[in-house]
Amino acid sequence: MPELPEVETVCRGLAPHLEGRVLVQVLQRRPNLRFPFPPDFCARLTGRRVESVRRRAKYILVHLDDGTVLIAHLGMSGRMIITPERPAEYGAHDHVVLETDAGTVVTFNDARRFGLMDLATAETLAGHPLLRSLGPEPLGNEFSGPVLAERLAGRMTSIKAALLDQTVVAGLGNIYVSEALFLSRISPTRIAATVTGAKADRLATAIREVLGRAIAAGGSSLRDYRQASGELGYFQHQFSVYDREGQPCPGCTCDVARTGGIQRIVQAGRSTFYCPQRQR
Questions:
Q1: In this protein, which residues make up the domain named FPG-type (predicted)?
Q2: In this structure, what are the phi and psi dihedrals at residue 7, rounded to the nearest 5 degrees?
Q3: I want to staple 214 with a disulfide (CB 3.0 to 4.6 A). Which of 5, 73, 114, 171 is the partner?
Q4: For residue 215, what are the contacts with CB-CB under 8 A and spacing of at least 6?
Q5: pTM summary value
Q6: Burial of 116 (0-12, 13-18, 19+ CB in 10 A)
């Protein structure tokens, strides 16, 4: 599933094509995705000018000139495809089509249909059921070591599980949690509540650094993800531990033959990759 860097990259790709443009035609080509579309979905979008394209956690937020906000989630396989004009025909998995007054067409394609779209208003957005319980943005000014330590206080789960909880920190997923824990030298099995002081500072800094580098690389393309331009992301070529089981740790000189190198364990049904020699 696309994580924060992938969604941020998609938002940055959409913004130049949507911001300031009027949606002259909106097509909804099926009644539902993960959930049914809201009533009057196309009518509420058609004729409206796009003010901004933003991100909250893993959600794309398209703000319109009448205060309406289009909320979109890519799900497992969703893609926003930008074309300079309307195609001759749409594909079977092209579910929503936005056409602007410049002739540009943005198509939401989702083969598995785990994505979603909903509508809110700017006034009610923060209280929307999809958004109201989200934790702080890890790239926001309010995120820091002390803030992270406060959110982890009293949590007796593993730090890996805690960071995947969207109410603790918004937008983090399996790949970037593994990478940030490696960079901060914290074991994924450590009890979350014990990540305080200098450890929390290191982890908060590592989270921001890993996410920043991933966004600069256009995200990670492992299966279905593509940027809005259609290009692949390239951060998968910079992984330190993710999907590198048995390979040498890039952060220490441990003997792979003796230690087994990077290890893979399963936590809450998700693969975790780490170096037991480096991460404590």
A1: 240-280
A2: -65, -40
A3: 5
A4: 5, 8, 9
A5: 0.91
A6: buried
> d(Cα 42, Cα 174) in Å, to the nearest integer?
35
Contact 228, 259 (CB under 8 A): no
Q: What is the pLDDT of residues 123-149, one digit of tens each?
A: 999 999 999 999 999 999 999 999 999
Residue appearing with tokens 């990670």: 220
Active-site annotation holder among 19, 248, 270, 276: 270
Q: What are phi and psi of 178, to 5 degrees?
A: -60, -45
C-alpha dihedral (264, 265, 269, 270), degrees to nearest 10: -40
Which is nearest to 26 in space by CA: 10, 15, 37?
37
Q: Which ranges constitute the DSSP H helices of 140-196?
A: 145-152, 159-164, 174-183
Closest CA to 148 of 170, 126, 131: 170
Q: Would residue 99 show up in a list of annotated catalytic residues for this protein?
A: no
| Residue 172 contacts residue 4 (beta carbons within 8 Å) | yes
Q: What is the pLDDT of residues 147-172, one digit of tens each?
A: 999 999 999 999 999 999 999 999 99
Q: Which residues contact 258 (CB under 8 A, 6 or more apart)?
A: none
Is-catalytic flag, 58? yes
Looking up tokens 């979350």 gives 192
Catalytic residue among 48, 58, 160, 199: 58
- Of the residues 3, 6, 8, 179, only one is catalytic, namely 3
Residue 132, marked binder: no
Rounded to an integer, what distance in angstroms lies between the CA atom of residue 206 and that of residue 211? 8
Does 17 belong to an annotated binding site? Answer: no
pLDDT band for position 255 (50/70/90)? Answer: confident
Residue 137, amino acid: E
